[in-house]
Fold this protein.
Amino acid sequence: MSAPDGNPVGTERSIGQLFASATTDMSALVHDEIALAKAQLKQDVKRGAMSGGAFTVGAVLLVFSLPMLNFALAYGIHAWTGGHNGEGGWNLAWCFLLSFAANALIALLLFLIGATFAKKAKKGKGPQKVAASVKETAGVLQNAKPHPRPETPALEERVPEAIEAVARSSS
């Protein structure tokens, strides 16, 4: 029986062999994590593309179905005003004009909502606030001075103490 690195079980390995084995395992782990991240990113991009395609096809289908909605609305108005029972009802031209007016009114309402949000977005100073904050932080950091550190004795001064400590412990 042998260990995963090929050495027989029960044999002592040197620190260098253990370190080499740990380094190899860590490197393999990092490579596997990178491969996993790439696979997940690829899957997310594929899902995003499918989602975008589905939304686009749905929007195109909705745009092409709007004329049918207008026809249905116009004929519905005609039937609602009495045209369904042969008594006449409103003229179909007026019904189609009313259908157009309803669509124009909805479009105007949506344009007003869009304009309101555009004004709010224009008033917002998000990027300008961030840029000002970054400039302020940079200004503060430029004027910052390092904290004074306690002076450490030079290397020559520390060596005799270390030697004395070792000499005392071995005597």
Q: What stands out?
A: Residues 15-80 form the longest helix (66 residues). Helices lie at 15-80, 92-123, 126-143, 155-170. The chain has a mean pLDDT of 78. The CA atoms of residues 55 and 143 lie 52 Å apart.
